Structure formats: structure tokens, C-alpha cells
Amino acid sequence: MLKFLPHSILLLIILSIAGMVSAEISYGGYLAGRHALSAKDFDAASTYLSRAIEDDIENPELLNGLISVQVSLGDIGAAKISSDNLDLLDVQTQLSNMVKIATQLRKRDFDNAKKQIENEQGINPLLDKIVTGWAYADQGNFEDAETIFDEIGKGSSLAQFSQMQKASMLAAYGRYESALNTIENLEKNSNRISIDARALKVQLLLKLDNKEEATEYFSKIFGDGVNSDAANLRMQVEAHPNAYSIEESLSLKAGIAYAFYAIADILKDDADPNTALLYVRLAQHLNENSQKAILLAADLLEQMGQYDLAVAEYAKISPSSSYFLSSELGRVGALRDGGKTEAALEVLYYLSREFSDIGIVHNSLGDFLRREERYSEAKIAYDRAVDIYRENNNVSWVVLYARGITHERLQEWDKAESDFRNALTINPDQANVLNYLGYSLIDRGEKLDEAMTMIEKAVRLQPESGYIVDSLAWGLFKLGQYETAIPHMEKAAELMPVDPIVMDHLGDLYWAVGRQLEAKFQWRRALSFDPELKDATRIREKLRIGLDRVLINEGLKPTSELYANDK
Known about the structure:
By secondary structure, this protein is mainly alpha-helical. Among the domains are: 91 residues, Serine Threonine Protein Phosphatase 5, Tetratricopeptide repeat; 65 residues. It contains 34 helices and no strands. Helix 2 packs antiparallel against helix 3, helix 18 packs antiparallel against helix 19 and helix 26 runs antiparallel to helix 27. It starts with 6 loop residues before the first helix and ends with a helix.
């Protein structure tokens, strides 16, 4: 999850895309907009900024801020009106240019889009070249169009992106052989090409009536095709030659929209999600049938904490779509993060009935229930998931690990240990499983040498994991090797400075070596980090009577006895 700037700063950024914020901004509208943003409510922000503009109709910064909010909401028609109002003030901004060009492209008005770019009212150097290339193609000048796309990728990391655009452009204008050659040249000269490029190749082969080659290529690249993209493509392969989606994916609007979508997809991990959202909203405006754009918009809204908007976006995917299951699982996450736990669970139970033979559905249900500490129900879901995966020879360490945790919480240790060991059979170097099993064995006082070996291996695999380093230190504590344990526990405390369990453990170690004042300080710190009730009760008891008396009252040996034996 991305961190957010303070809301006042975020609002200023939105309002200042074109320049510095005017001192004349309506203060009431500004404060209301700020509050709306603090609540992550684009609808309210749009309302309040509109009201502020009524009081200050010639304020370009407010208008540009309104455009940003309108585009973020996907209301490109309203954003175009706001952009026209900016034109009346003789003000040009990157965002208003984006809206005007996207509106022209939607109407296939490539000539005016190209003229706007030539008049230095473009979007950015990359998209300006792409739009110009499409404009040449629309004029029938494919030689110059191809040259532009080739130049974009020459000697840069954009080669794959530009050639994908070139192939999409050629396909959109019916030049399927040339488009196929472009993808095949890309494949020949690159060790790794995108799934989208390979999917386009399958679609082009189908369009050229090479179904046998398309089927063979699909099987080679996608195998069983368990993800939504592959499932959608399989539908096209099986339905050929009457698959509407092939025509749709090779259309002009799909090709030019993909340019905006691809930039949003690139930006989503490296930029503020609102920036990526602006591009994907324009992609949706250009191609309302792009389900990948819908899913990306929903994901970005979810990142921004705008869960209701994300839920509404996920709901746009039709039940007949191959993306429906992915969208519903995404909707579950948005509902849960938005505090609507029961609604999210209701969707998951529905999916478990409608997609009863899909392992990921039951696995997702198990994960959800486990997080809610409904372990008995989670176990049932995991059992079903494991059965499905085993039927398909596709069981993964992840589901076994999750079910093992559930068994452990239900105090079914034999079953938990079996799941953990089976997970390690699949992936012997999975540090989290090694850590969980090793820590649990130590906590139970069983197979201590093997447990320590597991944890030491986990530390080697993930030396900067505070949880794993804590396990190593705690294992040494359980063995009475207090002095050896302290540096490891202190490192864990550095890695996780606000974790109550780590602070509690560090306090225990300090107590064990006679550093009682430091021990009490760490226990008090642990209490300040909101530990679970049972842990907090035990920490307070240690502060009252000391660790050794607590251990004796629990029927355990005091640290002094273990430490003396270690000496």
C-alpha cells in the first residue's frame, strides 16, 4: 500500500498542475475540498471545487483541479467542459490537453489531435509521438507512421511498447500480415515479450484463419491458461471464427486506448496512483469495453483508499466475462478494506458455490476467514482448496502453509506439523514456513536441534526479517543461551521497533541476564504498542512480580535455573 501525502499537500498538488496556487482561491471551497480529499471522496471534492469556481470563475488553478477530480471519477465529458472553460481564460495545462486530445481521438479526429500537438499543446513526448503515428496511419501514410513507432523504441527500453503499438496500429487498419510480422520480429529479437504481445499474435493468427497455428502457439505459451487473460484468449480460440472479441481487440479504439492503458500500467508501481488513474480513465474513455482498464482503475482506486469507487468499478465486469472471477475477488478485497466484512464474506461464499471447482476461490475464502480468526470455517475452505489442487497435481506450498497455521490455531498440532513439512517438501527454502515450524517446535519444547537448524536457515534466507531474527533469538532464549540471544533480539528490535512481541521478548532476555531495569523499560514499551489482551496481562504480571515468578506460577523453570545450567 502506498503512503499518502498530508491531505493539504495533496490538494495543493492537484490544484497546481498548471502552476502555483493562486492566493485568490475560494477559501471555503478549498477547505471543503480538503475535507473531501481527507475522506477520499472524489464526488464531494468535485462538488466543492465546482462551488469554489462559482465564486472565482476565472481561477485557472481551481479549474485545473476540478478537471483532475473529474477525470479521476471517469467523467471525461465534464472534464472536457472544464477544459474548454480553461481555454476561454487562454490557459493551457497538460491535463486539459490530455482531455482534449482523448476526446478528439474518441471521435477519430486524428487531424485535430495532431494539430494540437504541433501547436505545443500535447500530453507528453511519448504519447505525442504515438498519437502522431496513429494520425499518419489514419491519413493512409503508413510509411511515416511505422517510422515514428520504430524511432520511439530505437535504443531505448520502450522498444517492446512501441512495437506493440505499431502492431496494434497496423491491425486496426486491416494490415494483419504486417502486424503479425511486427510481433514475430519482436519475439525474434527479444528474450522476453509481454503477455499482451503474445495474445495479440494469437488474435492475428486467428484473424488470418491460421487456427491450427494459433492453437499450437496458445498451448505453448499459456499452457492450461488459468489466468483471466489466457482464459479470455482461449474463448477466442475455441469460438473462432465468430468471436466478436477478436474484432474488438484488433479495433482502432482498442489500439489507441492501449497506449494510455500501458502507460498507466507502467506508472502504477512507480508513481502516485492518482497519476496512473488519470491515464487509465482516458483509456476507458477511448475503449469502454477494455476490461483490463476497468480492473486497473479499480485497483488504483483501492490503493488510494477509495473503496466504494473501487467496488463500483469491479461491478462493471459482466458475469459472462472471463475476467469476472478476478473482478469479484478484487471486489472482495475492496469491500473488506472498506470495512464491509460481512458483504465481502457473502461474495466469497457465493463464489465458492458458483466456482466450486476453482481452488483459488476456496483458498481465498480460507484466507479471509483465517484473518477473521474463524479458524474452523477456514479449515473447511482450505481442505476443499487442497483437494482441488491435488486433483489437478497443482498443490502449492502457500495453501498448505496457510492451512497449517489454521490447524495450529485450532490446537491440532499433528495436522499443522504435517502441512508445514509437506509445504517444505514442495519448497524447501521457504523462509516463512521454516520459521513458523521451527518457532512452534521450540515453543512446544520439541525437536529443538532440528527447530534451531530450520530457523538458522530461515535467517540465512531472510537476514533482514525481524520476525525470523526474533525467532532465532527466542529459540536461544528457550535453550537458556541468553547472552548469545541478546544481539539477535536487539537486531530484531531495530528491524521492528514498534512490535510488542519483540519488545516483550527483549525484556525477557534482559531480565534473564540480570538487567532488570532495562527489562521493565522494554516491557513498558511493549505495553505502549497495544499487544493482545492475554499478552498485555502477562506483561503487567511480569512488571509486578518479575519474570521468574511468572514462569514458576506457570509451572515452568525460572530463567535463573536455565542460565545457571548453561554456565
